[in-house]
Amino acid sequence: MSQSFDVAVIGGGPGGYVAAIRAAQLGFNTVCIDAFKNPQGKPSLGGTCLNVGCIPSKALLQSSENYHAIQHDFAAHGITAENPKIDIAKMLERKDGIITKNAGGIAFLFKKNKVANVHGLGKLVGRQNEKWLIEVTDGGETQQIEATHVIVATGSNPRPLPGVEVDNVRVLDNAGALAMTEVPARLGVIGAGVIGLEMGSVWKRLGAEVTVLEAMPTFLAAVDEQIAKEAHKYLTKDTGLVIHNGVKIGAIENGADAVTVKYELNGQAQELVVDKLIVAIGRVPNTAGLNAEGVGLQIDERGFIVVDDHCHTNLPNVWAIGDVVRGPMLAHKASDEGVAVAERIAGQKPHLDFNTIPWVIYTHPEIAWVGKTEQQLKADGVDYKKGTSGFAANGRALGLGMTQGTVKVLACAKTDRILGVHIIGPMASELVAEAVAAMEFSASSEDIARIVHAHPSLSEVVHEACLAADKRALHG
């Protein structure tokens, strides 16, 4: 006999588990179905983000930055340490501990909010008596669940590189990149996106020679051009990454002792021999095993589930959120969509504005932005003004020893309404929150310029950039 619920969420990542919790808060009898297992074969909630993505990568980034700092930065503070060493096993143990703690935290939240948790692969079977039938398979066992509403939050998978098999021994995806047990002497990365640059930075700081190959001719094409150029300088000159754009990848040979990548750059045949190769060329929506075709769930030509502005699919009472639908593949976007869908099921009218979703790349220094880039405004023919300010003279940045970077504010030339804010610098991921809040409230650059910012603080650079937009910078 099948269990019956008001809402069934398929997928326990940042979109799915948040949707389930919010649905339960709104009074719905809710179940979350998730198939992820950790390397020990145990169920682990949190999806890609928590288990093999956002969270573990930030743990390794922090470890690598600490190691780099003790080697290169602490002497300026009068702190010296002879022959510092990195214990990779201990570093990975810390990372795994963070994953376990967070996954356990989600399980606790499910219990607290009375969300049922079923482990296994969820498959849509059909609809009977206004209820959707879902078959959940875990190993050789199968159970039936029925629900009035279904929220599909199955996330995404690494985009495969044709002709290349990821074995997570020498050729790695994001999961393999987070689990290397020793520092490779030579590391290759295909893809200069978020994953490629973050993982490349981690292992470069720990001692690897890192070469990044990117097919796109422009470095970080989605980032404001001025900020991207500054990022390229820091990542190549200071971090020490070798980055080649405009690369055409050819054959990749995974040998017994090394991986050989043959590629073309500026019309010249090249060859890169590395000990490990990370393939990070983006992600694709995950609908495997969902039985979309069998129930008539519409999938577009790129593999995304088709939804309207409210995340409703073409099927009655079936919703989809996060990486498996259109829009940016960001954990926080998925979470907010999950909340919005739960509230729509309850008859509320929530709003989610894609124009004010922040983006972050956790390199050193960090890169964060919200809204339009300068190149987008030019292409759209928008009359704008801009203000910039650097961290080099900021008292807090000087105290931290982190003076690299810039804040750039773009505002409408007529109304002064903020159209975009772009940051490269220390704690950019935190600083961008002020810009997001300002844009959500349709603030002008003058609004931020007239808000008192704490001194000394990094946020003063945002304040100064807004002053500069009105040509009245005080410290620049």
Characterize the structure shown.
- It is a single chain.
- By secondary structure, the chain is α/β, with parallel strands linked by helices.
- The protein has 3 domains: 3-158 and 284-352, FAD/NAD(P)-binding domain (3-Layer(bba) Sandwich); 171-281, FAD/NAD(P)-binding domain, CATH 3.50.50; 356-469, Enolase-like, domain 1, CATH 3.30.390.30.
- Helix content is 32%, strand content 27%.
- The chain contains 14 helices and 22 strands.
- It has helices at residues 16-25, 47-52, 54-72, 88-112, 174-177, 194-205, 225-238, 292-295, 331-345, 374-379, 395-400, 428-440, 445-449, 459-469; strands at 3-10, 30-34, 116-119, 121-128, 131-138, 141-152, 156-158, 171-172, 186-190, 209-214, 242-245, 247-254, 259-265, 268-274, 276-279, 283-285, 318-320, 359-361, 366-371, 384-390, 406-412, 418-425.
- The strands form 5 sheets. Strands 1, 2, 3, 4, 5, 6 and 17 form a 7-stranded mixed β-sheet that branches. A 5-stranded parallel β-sheet has the order 8-15-9-10-11.
- Strand 9, helix 6 and strand 10 form a beta-alpha-beta unit.
- Helix 3 packs antiparallel against helix 4 (88-112).
- It starts with a strand and ends in a 7-residue tail after the last helix.
- The mean pLDDT is 97.
Q: What shape does the CA trace take?
A: globular
Please bin the fraction of helical residues.
25-40%
Residue stretches low in confidence (pLDDT < 50, at least 5 long) are none
| Number of DSSP E strands | 22
User: What is the total number of structural domains?
Assistant: 3
CATH top-level class of the largest domain:
Alpha Beta
Cα separation of the termini: 71 Å
Given helix and strand content, the structural type is alpha/beta
Portion in strands: 25-35%
According to CATH, the fold-level topology of the largest domain is FAD/NAD(P)-binding domain
